[in-house]
Amino acid sequence: MLRGVDATSPSANLPRPGGSLHRFANPGRFLRLTDSWLPVLAAAAALVLGWGVVWGLFFAPPDWQQGETVRIMFVHVPMAWLAMGGYLGLAVLSLMSLIWRHPLADLTARELSPIGAAVTALCLVTGSLWGRPMWGTWWVWDARLTSVLVLFFLWLGHAALVRAFDDPERGARMGAILALVGVVNLPIVKFSVDWWNTLHQPASLTRIDAPGMHVDILYPLLVCAVGFSLAFAALVLAATRAAVMERRVRALQMAAARRAEASA
């Protein structure tokens, strides 16, 4: 069963910390809301991502230094952003679980971590494909690549830890603690190219005074980033919906089994 106050009980209307967040804690309300949100989100993701990928792969010009190889960036960079942004979201869900005991936070975090691990794996794979022609090697143990690899293991560790206990709440607590401890790796990933001498190129988009990327490449990259972000959100919502429905079905089956035992 999902944790939280029964929506039919008198205490459900009492004010409490994080009360506005608990509006979405009821599984039935969550399913009703996402039933209308999810198709719109999925359609928007398909349209924006299709536009960005076609623009980036077929119409954006090649880079004057990297040539056609630069097109890997239209997948690699959004995957890197989602790997870090998704983990920050995992940390927020962990705080909601530990502090406010939000009923859906544990479930969403549980479904988020495999998706986050897959995104981070794509970031590493596309980075290797990009690095081979640029650096002459598939992998180097520099600060950026190593810290992203650590992030990948943090995602995998969370996914494994929340499923390692017979008691789901205990697994969720252990996973939340791991997620919060792993947040210290995020600034290392972000600023590693500034703190250490690495082969990885420094940030290009945050240099507002002197952008390091031509707009013909920048604009399709941003469209791809929005498209992949929408697709990421749609996948997480769909996985969470499936998990909520699975738990409701399991709870109904257990209740039916108890009634059958009582009537026997």
TrEMBL record:
Give the domain of life: Bacteria
Instruction: Give membrane topology per the record.
Output: Multi-pass membrane protein
Mark the transmembrane ranges: 37-59, 79-100, 112-131, 143-165, 177-197, 217-244
Indicate the principal place this protein occupies in or around the cell: membrane
The residues covered by the Cytochrome c assembly protein domain are 41-200
Q: Where in the cell is it found?
A: Cell inner membrane; Membrane
Sorted UniProt keywords: Cell inner membrane, Cell membrane, Cytochrome c-type biogenesis, Membrane, Transmembrane, Transmembrane helix, Transport
Which InterPro entries does this entry report, sorted A to Z? Answer: Cyt_c_assembly, Cyt_c_biogenesis_CcmC, Cyt_c_biogenesis_CcsA/CcmC
Q: What does this protein do?
A: Required for the export of heme to the periplasm for the biogenesis of c-type cytochromes.
Give the family this protein belongs to, as stated in its UniProt record: Belongs to the CcmC/CycZ/HelC family.
- Name the chain's protein: Heme exporter protein C
Naturally occurring in which organism (per UniProt): Roseococcus pinisoli
Gene behind this protein: ccmC
